[in-house]
Amino acid sequence: VRRGLLAALWLSERMLGLDAAVASWLKQTLVAAGPLAPLELDAARALAALRQDKKAGRFVLLAALGRPVLVTPPDELHQAALAVAARGTAGVA
Known about the structure:
Blueprint: H1 2-16, H2 20-31, H3 43-52, E1 59-64, E2 67-71, H4 75-87
Antiparallel strand pairs: 1-2
């Protein structure tokens, strides 16, 4: 779950312009729950699994605190978000 939230925050910043200070605060809150070891992911298989998920590859992103938006990112951003999720806490600033 935390990996997905980290990916969604990353996408929120890039796609919706979520304020960097809000994103940083939320990421630090997720990281405080404990370390996430990096994962090795097969990008093609992970992207296919995302499309089969109940949300069909869509993400609930934040335009701002209290302003969620359902978005289907383009493939290149999907893949980059998967990389963020795979890194776990390593990608959090």
